[in-house]
Amino acid sequence: MARKKLSTTIYITPEQNERLKVLHERTKVPVAVYIREGIDLVLAKYEHVLPGQASLLDDKRKA
Predict the structure, then answer these.
(1) More confident: 50 or 57
(2) Do residues 55 and 49 touch, judged by C-beta distance below 8 A?
(3) Rounded CA separation 18/55 (Å)
(4) How large is the greatest C-alpha to C-alpha distance in the chain, in angstroms?
């Protein structure tokens, strides 16, 4: 079963919009999928800033 998705508004540049449309035309993958993938990439990049359980490596660095 697919996970529930929330609707939100984003603003992109005309160039981003055009490139996403071309990508969609060539791959038939919905633009929304690419936007969600981009969000996942940013969240992974900044994971160290997000709250969560500290890893064991973090504990060893403090010692």
Answers:
(1) 50
(2) no
(3) 41
(4) 53
Distance CA 47, CA 45 (A): 6
Helix ranges, 1-63 (H): 14-27, 31-45, 56-62
pTM for the whole structure: 0.74
Given a contact cutoff of 8 angstroms between Cβ atoms, the answer to whether 37 and 23 are in contact is no
Query: CA-to-CA distance for 41 and 29, rounded, in angstroms?
Result: 17
Q: Say which residue the tokens 């994971």 belong to.
A: 47
Neighbour-count burial of 35, counting CB atoms closer than 10 A to its CB (0-12 exposed, 13-18 middle, 19+ buried): middle
